[in-house]
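Quality-control log, excerpt.
Job 1 of 2 completed; input and output follow.
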Amino acid sequence: MHINPSRLGIPNMEKKITYRGVSTRREFLLGATGLALATVLPACSHTNKTTIQTQKVEPEIVSVTDQELGVSCAWIKSRFYFSVVLLMAITACTHWSPRVDQDGLPDRGYSYQQPEKIADGWETTSITDANVDRDIINEMMLDVLTGNDRNVHSILIVKDGKLVFEEYFYGYDREKSHFLASVSKSITSILVGIAIEQHPKANEKTKAYEFFPSYTHTKWVDQKYPITLQHVLTMSAGLEWDSGKYSRRDPRHTTHQMYDSDDPIKFVLDRSLVEEPGAKFYYNSGLTILLGEIVKHLSGLSIDDFSGQYLFSPLGISNYHWDKFADGRVQTDGGLHLRPRDMAKIGYMILNGGNWQGKQVVSKAWVIESTKEQIDALGTGYGYQWWTGKTANYDQPIDVLFASGHGGQKIFIIPEYDLVVVFTSKVFNPKGHTSPEGFLLRYILPAVDSSLIPNRTVQLPPELLDRFVGKYKSEELDHELPLIRQGNNLYIKENFWTKVEIKPISETKFFGDSKQVGKFNIKFFIDRNGNVDHFLAYLGFRGFKFDKIE
């Protein structure tokens, strides 16, 4: 953005000015923003007679008195502070606005444009031709462009095999690849399936230590842990691994320690076995690092070369990149970069049983096995590095399969509607998982199916609300929640100070919005005697059971 200097009130912005005091000499150029004025402000405190040299075409020397210098410094300071404030305002507009116009100002106007058909394999059509409600999509765009969510970088919708919606924000565009974080895990699972199909002697029941013959003198290999490839794929290996107590950036986080190690494979293989394999899900990025090495063991190719030859090339994907460790190994747990259009290809191939435009890229049997729930994963299901869930926002639950990465990188697959939705987002943000799920539930699914308009409230009499009052406990979360009634309203007490109203949409279904966990839905279950037995709380696609204990 270009700013006319005269609009800032600073004349002759191209002058070079030098102040010379008794013990100081400071030079600065007045740039368009005036920030360089900061270098002269200390000189303005001098009381010595000072010379100002201005440079136009011919330099000239001008002498000023201390009084005149004081006036000059006051002028400079006032213009400096004004310039800083203006610069901050401009920066806020351009940095915090999803889109800006040619003058660098927030652009909140929106008119739907059908995605452009280019030579990348995608057929495109309009949302009208795809029977997607344009008004609801316009509401979603208004939500994004007004800055209600400052983290989303792209939203793409594929309906019935055609790209019908494609929008980018915060400087991203169609050709710019995006960091996928743990969406990389789901794509690594696809590569394992292709490698096993090519080398049928290996399968999900193969003991994992057999893939690491060069790693003798590690606990896993020497002690022959009874961990199978399936346990690795489902993150149920039972290893000592702490990924929940500390943040990912904390040196005490086990994944952080793996990244700091000289050999990440050895680091994982030297972890102690503390649970029976297959008994319990525990999120462990180290296991996905092992999957990349297993692909190399089976194929003889590093997984970045293997993925290019056997996955990306058949899909017509050429713009991809894998991050690597210092020793050259690929960061299969979260190091892949793809364009959002190519993320959508991955999603639609999985939706079609591993087939992309007539080419069977990965076997249908692997897709079925890897995308079904293999183990409970704290409120949702987990397959072979894929997440499974249901939404309770509507009268009938809707099955959703998804790849999920830190900050809100998502590939949602909804088979019931032949629908794939892709989100990319700012990697480190507090609403990373809830924001894309919220957009999908509030706007995209209702735009696809008009019967899915959620959260229409009804009025329930106090005597009906009273049966829900009491204390509930989730054994899974080891957490208690009291429910209280005040007047005609029902509330969940999150703690001593805060409560959240839950609003009825039927006699047993409610919804709420908590500052702590975001939007949620609740469904109460009644026993044969007409008493409340428990409720299920749904956060996005995750469901948690709370039993009534009082």
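Job 2 of 2 completed; input and output follow.
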Amino acid sequence: MTEWNGFKGAAKRLDDIDIPRIGHRIGVGEDEIHAFMDVEAAGSGFDSQGRPRILFEPHVFYRNVPAALRQRAVSAGLAYARWGMRPYPKDSYPRLLAAMEIDETAALKSASWGLGQILGENHKMIGYDTPQAMVVAFMEDEENHLAGMVDFLIAAKIDDDLRAHRWAKVAEVYNGPGYRKNNYDGRLSAAFARWRKIKDTPWTPGDVTVTDITVITGPVTTKVWRWHIAGDSFGEGLAARLGGMSADFKRGTPSADIIHRVRAADGVIIGAGSNDVSEDRKSINPEARANLEAIRARAVELNPNVEIIWVLPVIPIARDLVKSIAELHGDDYVAVAAGPDGVHPPAWGPVARDVMAAVQKIEAGAQPTPAPASQPSPTSETAAMTTPTPAPFADLLHTIGSTALNGLMGSNPAMMVAGNLIKAALDKPNVPIEVKDVPAAAAEVVAAIKADPKVAIVATKSAWMSKINWAQAAGLAATVAAIVGLPLSAEQILGVVAGIQTVVATGTWILKTFFTPTVTPASIGK
């Protein structure tokens, strides 16, 4: 079929980083995914011609082809009632193309595709509205093959079994009741044992530069909203900065590939459209509107009461398209300023703050309606996908933390600086602390100390005192680094800082008690 271009797309091979990143979505490591691929995957998702590897199944075509066309398919040798009636040819594409002449959709549904040899008739299980959409995605990138395998595990409810290494259950569901004949469970177990001995690919959720991260945590409410981020690099940029949300994203991917990245949630944040634009940025893929509408339709299908927030692309032609879709449906959207490359924002922090403001506005205006229980729960591919702390526990942490800080802040100037920063984070959990704010906070504390007439600055000749200063400086540095550098909520940061200050306080007490001479009135006089 000429419109399929011989089933040749970009045919991008799987990157090493894709394996731990996609495994992270279901809470497994690289070893489980490698083992599953070794046993269940086709070795390569593409054949020697760059087409998705397929196996056309005539017995599946028999059940998928419309009844009025079935005899034609049978007469052509393309369909029969039971598996195993005839041997399969080495190349399935000629039979697939012939079957497509009879009924394209039924033919595409009747072939197993890509790495995981997923039947086209299971396209909805892995997030595609049509088998055509699934095949197009599989033509582009092996990552989509692997993501489809993981989506199938979720939909078939055996992701828990993979996490628990219940290999027999995984094999039974994926391969059918005859799995023991081919020892699928034993092969999975052996492959996992083999991969456990091999060093994993270095990767952290989100795969972004830590120095560029400002974490913004969602509001703590009595009813927790479930938010999901789906998108391209815009999704990645936001996922690293918005805690408490699941996410599924891929850099440089077009809107057609984002449809299956949507998960069931109370609210979905969509960053798509930038990669549908031509290189000269003057035209856009004619299918872009339909694909963007399909992304939204997928979110509504999973939860009819879902709230949608669109993050507008920077490129004008894509921005106008996405904005028109948002306005058509009455969805919220966030505009993004153009950075130096004309594609991304100059910094993600302001975008994340604007998105969080839209989230808070929605949450303040209505209580969420839970997504249908039959749908898979949101899964995670990015940093800090933890559920926000329920209100009573958060309030208790805030009270205990503030009380402890008030006592500790009087112990030394360093603790006062750290304490003020922590209290600011606790009092305003949705306003991130920027690195640039730290010197100003420190300056205010120093000025207050100098203005206090009860404070006397005393010189000391003890060499051990310098060790105390260094200990406190190290504690302050670690505290500030934890506050501005770790993708954690305010409550989580409080726990980290409390641990740091416990170590510093213990060390300081030891130095002062056993190694520091007492300051005398005589030394003050000097």
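Post-run check on job 2. The chain has 21 helices and eight strands.
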